[in-house]
Design the sequence.
């Protein structure tokens, strides 16, 4: 399924995402006060269905996703996906024990949305910085449903079927809260082409480091 | 590492004094060494400034080179430099301690700027790690000794530029590392990457680079500080481990109880039918585990590190749904980072093993149930069978017996073990049992023997046993054949009675004919006497006598068949006998049949009753005549025959020498069915009245009684040959056959002697008495033994006892004779018998001096025998 990106480009992209995710994890760690395990990110260009299948492969339960669209030189959508049952745990982890269950339930969607926004903002912001570009981020939305539905949500019908997407897959897991999730980034072909250019310039700028100054 | 090889060195040029100085400074040097100080001690009193000792750090950091420069500068320059640093080109500055102390010159290598703690560096060097620092503003990259060595730098503190740094990285890894460094320079905090480092001597080593970016006061990246760790060995081990895992189908995983994901290997994913990823959600793995089976993950860690429970569980593969058996093994380790327990383990497929075990189990169960079923069946047979079962050891003792013993012989099976089978068999049959057991011991596969056994109630039962050898002993099954034997006996009896009926019927027919002749003659004689026609009497008498003679011949033949005729065996020359018969034979068979004889000239003698042999020969010739109605050739042959074992067995004779007499014809022959019956009494092929059918059976009886045999060869349409075998006799030459008696001797006047006549048949007694009277004897008569004995006692001695053998009243003729001899020793005895009963007559009749006269006899013969006894 690996198309479009060369190995070097993929390494570069992985590096960029790594930086962004590190920042996001650090934010989350500060927010929750618990250890957060992050997997080494994997970046693949695959079909929308394959991306959905990859998640579905691993999760049988309903999912919940915080969705944030981004626009700029390259556009797309970033998702923080959690098993729906994990949502409550995350809310509890964020809010602490000071609120009771009823309150936590009432605040669940809002908390989830804000937490997702924090993680995704960090991630996308860092990436944009790295690529020396700026991105406009939409307000976060919350989606419920099966993986295919989450990936399709808000997409035009023809994209649903034929879309080839960049799927950044990062697995995270929070200690003692039975929370795990994925960060996915979906981009269409024109945005991918643009991203590729940016990555190329990132690579060449890195090559310039040899001269001694960034 | 090389530092530790030179912890303390002395210059050989120092001599004894230096040696003692060295002794004194030793403890100091050790202390400096431990502190990691780069220090050298020189003998300042000598112009060549010999080295008394130095620390490893001094050597490692280029001290010897600086020292050499100092010596080149000379002792004066050295003295000037005391209290400050001595600097020379391309060597590190050497700091000389102020003022010599007892002639000792102390040199140290001062700390360089920007370098980390040297003790840490020493430790890094020892651990195969190098420390380095990248000053972003200047692009200056420098590191410790290890870093310098790995990067081909001459000394610690020497610097590289970024292009030099990247040049030391394997081309295949270079871009990746540059990207990583690029990330650090643009805001990433941490960097941890593995790459291949190219050494100055051409070696390639795998290193792990861990780097952190330190910002300056403005938050901009200022310097990268990091370490390089040699992981070549680790890489090799990893590679070996990876190959072992993939080749062995072993998936590895790590999981800290409490976390929702586990770090897994590619093989781990493949075992579950998942795409290879580095992390898997715990619930996903659990969802593949079959319901009721344990998860490979634990909910809570154990109390202490150590081996974890080994688990086998079933899964349904995520990709194709195939059920598999997997095995989990592993250990809990103390996590270095978090000090918590972390499970590190492996997963591998054991489906084949489990299935093989299951198959084996099923097979075993099936086998067990089949065995149980078979055992039940056998047990039923054992319990229900009416046949006796006996399991015996090698000595024939009972190991076990079935319950049938109770019903069949009244013996409880439980009491039998230990009892020898022989003890259960009737004594008469024990030899047969022993023979059967011996046969089994010598490898007999299937031995059958019929044994009589004693029932608990005392009756006898016959059992037919089939025995087979079994391990150390034998197994025998016995069927009660008592009833069968009885039935067989009854059948034989009824067959005998049938034969007797046939015999008596035939006899009655023949006798009635003869009686009619005799009776008719007597009536005619009566008529003639009444009419005074005496002249006609002799013809009737002749007729009656003829009938009586035929009747006598008939009974004789009967007895011959019964083998109870009284044989008067004489050594006989068969050739002579046949020769004497030829005329009679020729007359009997008629002129249309030619006789041919072939005599063995040196024919052996045989012992037989000559009259019977004549009779037999005549019979055979007459049969031959009847078979050759249209004429033919009658051949009479004699021969000597020595029968070997096999030939004798075929003839049912003991192996010995025999004389063979053969009568062969060229007549009609007989078919097999007829041949089978020819020896039966009254069997005849002749028309009614043509013969009694006793001919061949008589011949057979005579041959058997004489210790010989008869065999018939016959082909229908070609002829018949009857062979008569008679045993060879080795005694003296035969006497001439006695001449047949003609008629009664003439009556003699006067009393010639007294005879006691004992016979229970009044008519015979009357006839004999009249004959004896006629012959001039005085006759005393009694009708049984007791009467006879009484008469002997009362009437006084007699000259001859004439007694029938078969007497009524409990005393037979022989016994009477014995008793009479008690009364009158030496009494002459003539016994008259209807048949030869050896038991009655006794085997010793010759020495007992008792004469025998077989009934029927002619009165002339009778009187001649009496006369011979009473001369």
Sequence:
């Amino acid at each position: 399924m690996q198309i479009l990106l060369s190995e070097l480009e993929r390494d570069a992209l992985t590096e960029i995402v790594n930086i962004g995710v590190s920042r996001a994890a650090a934010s989350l760690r500060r927010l929750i006060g618990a250890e957060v395990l992050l997997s080494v990110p994997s970046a693949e260009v695959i079909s929308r269905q394959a991306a959905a299948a990859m998640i579905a492969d691993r999760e049988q339960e309903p999912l919940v996703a915080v969705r944030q669209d981004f626009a700029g030189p390259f556009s797309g959508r970033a998702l923080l996906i959690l098993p729906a049952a994990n949502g409550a745990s995350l809310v509890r982890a964020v809010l602490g024990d000071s609120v009771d269950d009823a309150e936590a339930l009432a605040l669940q969607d809002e908390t989830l949305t804000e937490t997702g926004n924090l993680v995704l903002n960090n991630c996308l912001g860092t990436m944009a910085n790295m690529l020396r570009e700026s991105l406009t981020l939409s307000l976060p939305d919350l989606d419920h449903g099966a993986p295919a539905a989450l990936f399709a949500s808000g997409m035009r019908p023809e994209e649903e079927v034929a879309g080839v997407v960049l799927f950044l897959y990062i697995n995270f897991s929070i200690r003692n809260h039975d929370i795990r999730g994925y960060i996915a980034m979906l981009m269409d072909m024109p945005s991918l082409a643009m991203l590729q250019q940016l990555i190329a310039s990132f690579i060449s700028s890195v090559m310039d480091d040899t001269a001694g100054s960034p | 590492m090389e530092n530790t090889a030179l912890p303390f060195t002395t210059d050989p040029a120092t001599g004894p004094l230096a040696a003692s100085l060295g002794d004194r400074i030793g403890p100091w040097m050790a202390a400096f060494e431990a502190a990691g100080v780069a220090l050298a001690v020189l003998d300042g009193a000598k112009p060549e400034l010999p080295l008394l000792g130095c620390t490893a750090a001094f050597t490692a950091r280029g001290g010897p080179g600086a020292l050499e420069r100092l010596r080149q500068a000379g002792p004066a320059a050295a003295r000037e430099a005391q209290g400050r640093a001595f600097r020379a080109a391309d060597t590190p500055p050497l700091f000389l301690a102020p003022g010599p102390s007892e002639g000792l010159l102390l040199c140290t290598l001062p700390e360089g700027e920007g370098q980390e703690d040297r003790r840490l560096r020493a430790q890094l060097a020892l651990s195969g790690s190098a420390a380095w620092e990248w000053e972003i503003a200047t692009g200056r990259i420098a590191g410790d000794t290890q870093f310098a060595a790995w990067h081909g730098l001459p000394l610690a503190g020497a610097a590289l530029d970024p292009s030099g740094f990247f040049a030391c990285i394997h081309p295949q890894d270079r871009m990746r590392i540059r990207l990583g460094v690029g990330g650090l320079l643009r805001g990433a905090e941490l960097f941890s990457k593995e790459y291949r480092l190219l050494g100055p001597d051409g070696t390639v080593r795998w290193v792990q680079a861990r780097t952190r970016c330190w910002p300056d006061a403005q938050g901009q990246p200022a310097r990268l500080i990091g370490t390089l760790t040699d992981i070549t060995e680790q890489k090799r081990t990893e590679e070996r481990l990876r190959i072992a895992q993939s080749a062995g189908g072993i998936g590895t995983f790590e999981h800290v109880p409490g976390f929702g994901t586990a770090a897994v290997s590619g093989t781990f994913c493949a075992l579950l039918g998942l795409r290879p990823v580095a992390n898997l959600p715990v619930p996903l793995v659990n969802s593949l585990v079959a319901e009721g089976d344990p998860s490979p993950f634990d909910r809570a860690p154990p109390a202490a590190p150590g081996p974890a429970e080994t688990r086998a569980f079933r899964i349904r593969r995520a990709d194709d749904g195939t059920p598999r058996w997997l095995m989990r093994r592993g250990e809990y380790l103390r996590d270095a980072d978090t000090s918590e327990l972390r499970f590190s383990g492996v997963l591998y497929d054991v489906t084949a093993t489990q299935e093989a075990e299951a198959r084996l189990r099923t097979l075993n169960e099936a086998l067990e149930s089949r065995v149980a079923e078979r055992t039940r069946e056998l047990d039923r047979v054992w319990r229900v069978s009416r046949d006796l079962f006996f399991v015996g050891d090698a000595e024939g003792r009972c190991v076990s017996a079935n319950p049938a013993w109770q019903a069949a012989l009244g013996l409880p099976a439980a009491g039998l073990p230990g009892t020898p089978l022989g003890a259960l068999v009737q004594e008469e049959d024990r030899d047969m049992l022993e023979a059967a057991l011996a046969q089994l011991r010598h490898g007999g596969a299937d031995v059958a023997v019929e044994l009589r056994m004693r029932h608990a109630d005392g009756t006898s039962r016959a059992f037919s046993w089939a025995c087979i050898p079994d391990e150390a002993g034998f197994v025998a099954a016995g069927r009660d054949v008592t009833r069968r034997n009885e039935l067989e006996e009854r059948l034989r009896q009824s067959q005998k009675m049938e034969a007797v009926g046939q015999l008596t019927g035939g006899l009655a027919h023949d006798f009635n004919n003869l009686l009619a002749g005799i009776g008719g003659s007597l009536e005619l004689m009566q008529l003639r006497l009444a009419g005074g026609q005496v002249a006609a009497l002799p013809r009737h008498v002749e007729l009656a006598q003829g009938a009586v003679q035929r009747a006598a011949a008939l009974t004789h033949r009967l007895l011959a068949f019964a083998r109870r005729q009284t044989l008067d065996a004489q050594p006989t020359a068969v050739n002579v006998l046949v020769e004497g018969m030829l005329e009679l034979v020729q007359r009997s068979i008629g002129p249309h049949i030619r006789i041919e004889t072939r005599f063995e000239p040196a024919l052996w003698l045989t012992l037989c009753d000559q009259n019977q042999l004549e009779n037999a020969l005549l019979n055979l010739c007459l049969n031959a005549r009847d078979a050759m109605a249209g004429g033919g050739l009658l051949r009479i042959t004699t021969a000597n025959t020595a029968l070997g074992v096999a030939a004798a067995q075929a003839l049912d004779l003991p192996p010995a020498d025999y004389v063979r007499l053969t009568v062969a014809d060229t007549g009609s022959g007989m078919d097999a069915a007829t041949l089978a019956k020819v020896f039966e009494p009254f069997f005849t092929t002749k028309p009614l009245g043509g013969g009694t059918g006793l001919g061949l059976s008589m011949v057979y009886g005579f041959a058997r009684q004489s210790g010989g045999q008869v065999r018939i060869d016959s082909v229908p349409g070609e002829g018949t040959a009857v062979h008569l075998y008679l045993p060879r006799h080795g005694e003296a030459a035969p006497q001439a056959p006695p001449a047949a008696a003609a008629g009664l001797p003439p009556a003699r006047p006067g009393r010639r002697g007294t005879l006691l006549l004992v016979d229970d048949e009044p008519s015979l007694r009357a006839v004999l008495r009249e004959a004896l009277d006629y012959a001039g004897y005085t006759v005393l008569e009694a009708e049984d033994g007791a009467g006879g004995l009484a008469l002997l006692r009362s009437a006084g001695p007699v000259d001859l006892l004439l007694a029938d053998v078969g007497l009524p009243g409990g005393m037979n003729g022989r016994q009477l004779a014995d008793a009479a001899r008690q009364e009158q020793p030496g009494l002459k005895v003539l016994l008259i018998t209807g048949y030869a009963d050896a038991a009655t007559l006794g085997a010793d009749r010759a020495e007992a001096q008792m004469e025998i006269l077989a009934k029927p006899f002619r009165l002339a013969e009778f009187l001649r025998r009496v006369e011979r006894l009473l001369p």
In short: Chain B touches chain A at residues 136-139, 161-163, 166, 175-176, 178-183, 185-190, 221, 256, 258-261, 274-275, 277-281, 283-284, 287, 318, 338 (CB under 8 Å). The domain at 235-349 of chain B is CATH 3.30.450.20 (Beta-Lactamase). Residues 482-530 of chain B form the longest helix (49 residues). The CA atoms of residues 486 and 773 of chain B lie 55 Å apart.
